């Protein structure tokens, strides 16, 4: 099963939507906690939903259940916990939330997880896919768009 991931930072709107348009994505799954920040620019929830449909024929869904808590994110960004501690805490949070019960194959097939981080290396969107592959045996083949 194919799935993509993308972050909106360090991309112009043109680059962002071109990557999506060329990716065979049919549903963008927004895994951010907050999707309406002024810092998001073209990636604010209502604007993004409009642009995706009009420019790329891609549907949109917000799934904050696949995001870390505000407190966990704050601890990592402030340097109070390491990436490894953040990763362990987020994996435990996903297990507690039983996210494998919230998503199904139809939702993920040719979907794309959206977060803010430019690259997936230190981003929870990568961890979501790794968790689902391990815990739900989804066999997701991921392509990170950047």
From TrEMBL:
<dbReference type="InterPro" id="IPR007438">
    <property type="entry name" value="DUF488"/>
</dbReference>
<dbReference type="Pfam" id="PF04343">
    <property type="entry name" value="DUF488"/>
</dbReference>
<protein>
    <submittedName>
        <fullName>DUF488 domain-containing protein</fullName>
    </submittedName>
</protein>
């Amino acid at each position: 099963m194919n799935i993509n991931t993308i972050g909106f930072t360090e991309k112009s709107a043109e680059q962002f939507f071109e990557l999506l348009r060329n990716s065979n994505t049919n549903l963008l799954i927004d895994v951010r906690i907050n999707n309406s920040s002024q810092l998001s620019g073209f990636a604010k929830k209502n604007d993004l939903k409009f642009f995706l449909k009009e420019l790329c024929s891609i549907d949109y869904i917000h799934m904050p259940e696949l995001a870390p808590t505000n407190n966990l994110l704050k601890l990592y960004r402030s340097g109070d916990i390491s990436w490894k501690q953040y990763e362990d805490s987020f994996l435990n949070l996903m297990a507690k939330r039983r996210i494998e019960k919230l998503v199904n194959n139809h939702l993920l097939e040719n979907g794309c997880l959206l977060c803010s981080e430019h690259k997936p290396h230190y981003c929870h969107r990568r961890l979501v896919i790794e968790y689902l592959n391990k815990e739900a045996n989804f066999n997701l083949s991921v392509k990170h768009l950047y």
